[in-house]
Description:
The complex is a heterodimer of chains A (361) and B (145).
Chain A: E1 3-8, E2 20-26, E3 29-36, H1 53-60, H2 68-82, H3 89-117, H4 121-142, E4 151-152, E5 155-156, H5 162-188, H6 190-196, H7 204-209, H8 215-218, H9 249-273, E6 291-300, E7 303-312, E8 319-323, H10 325-337, H11 345-351, H12 356-360
Antiparallel strand pairs in A: 1-2, 2-3, 4-5, 6-7, 7-8
Chain B: H1 10-18, E1 40-43, H2 53-57, E2 63-66, E3 71-75, H3 84-88, E4 94-97, E5 118-122
Antiparallel strand pairs in B: 1-4, 2-3, 3-5
Amino acid sequence: MKRTVVPMGPQHPVLPEPLVLDLVLEDEKVVDAIPTIGYIHRGLEALVERIEFGEFGYVVERICGICSFMHGMGYAVAMEKIMAVEVPERASWLRLIWAEMSRVHSHLLWLGLGADAFGFENLFMHCWRTREQVLDIFEKTTGGRIIFSVNKIGGVRRDIEDSELAAIVATLQELGAGFAETARIFETDPSIRHRLSGVGVLSREDAHAVDAVGPMARASGIALDTRLTGTHFYDRLDFEPVLETAGDCLARVVVRVREITQSIDLIRQAVERMPKGDGAPIDVKVRGNPTGETFERLEQPRGEVIYYIKANGTKNLERFRARTPTFANIPAMIKLVKGCDLADVPNIIMTIDPCISCTER
Amino acid sequence: MANPFNLPMVGRSLRNLVSRPATRRYPSETRPHFAGTRGTIEFDLDTCVFCGLCVRRCPTLALTCSREDRFFAIEQLRCIACGVCVDACNKDSLHMSVDAPRVHLHTGAAPGAPRPGHQEWHQQQPAGSPPGPGDAAGGPAVAAI
């Protein structure tokens, strides 16, 4: 049969960021997809040669506008590991709370974009309205809506008072109760089920084979969650990874919907279990230059991110590298796109939650 | 066969019809900022001693300063509003404000106009010292956005 190549992107209504897929079609079936990235490469990793290690954390946050807190946190934690800095307990708890709030706002953002991709604009508005409340909490506590600049090597730059923490938990629980209705729409609406169920099925074996991470892996039944390793105080909280077994687009939506509720509960647990007391230290002074190299893993909203840092005893790092979750999920996306209908391609691309800014840095 | 009466969105949509909108009539109605909002950098020429601490700490190289020329400049479009310079300043010459004019509203499109977001200040040289570039402007400070 004659083959046709349809270029999709870099500008496409469904794509929030520039990704190019050359789709090779036989009739309406996609037989091959060739991805191209590189449209928004900013050379942030190379900036380590010009910017001192203490200030570079604020640049790392700019890798992405959605996982910005996690990027700043990952860099700070990795540098603290190299420099053997003991971070005050309160700072670690605050980081955990902000990290889980990032997950809530990232998933709400994605659910809106996903709803927009499968033609449910009303739902898109509902998700983004809910997300706005999370951004308000971020602005109150960090001073920024998207880029927070609160992480620094040795701790955090802003404290949240105990009364404010209790108010945040109350707001989030109220938000979660309101979101339950939207969640029910995602899980039960027949048009959504019809559009997503059985589309882009990634089996458990395939997810293993292509090394899927994050909600992509969890929707295929793999309990892969870096938080389970117990680092960054997650060992002090009670939670089970959200798992689905169907592996289709609907399962990936449902995993993210449930993770929002889970993250709100984790924040509640963290606030209950962190030691009380306003005015406790939130940072320590860091002296000297770093030497050595390290890896650090975090569970971002999209999956596992890995940072590699190599320092040579000067004020500038020798190498900084971030392996982002979207980069790990692109092989899974290509595997799913092959064999599907052309009309299902946007949904499959969206359900991996692609973050091209993260991937290209 | 899907149940044609299973319409979970309908109740929500009907409520939206009679409830207040979640959005505001921007730009006539703007949202008030929170107490901790960072905003943009503002500079106080009178207290600055041109030590250059902020310039060395700035992660995006948005600040320029010269002690000899008594000169200080900010590229607001390069600034990422992290607030590191404010923390670094020993003289409280820098602070962050949400009331500053919005940088993106000024395009600087006229020929010879300063770059959008570029702000610079020149301090009058003490008597007897060689003239600096700011003296030609005739004022203690030149600020252009």
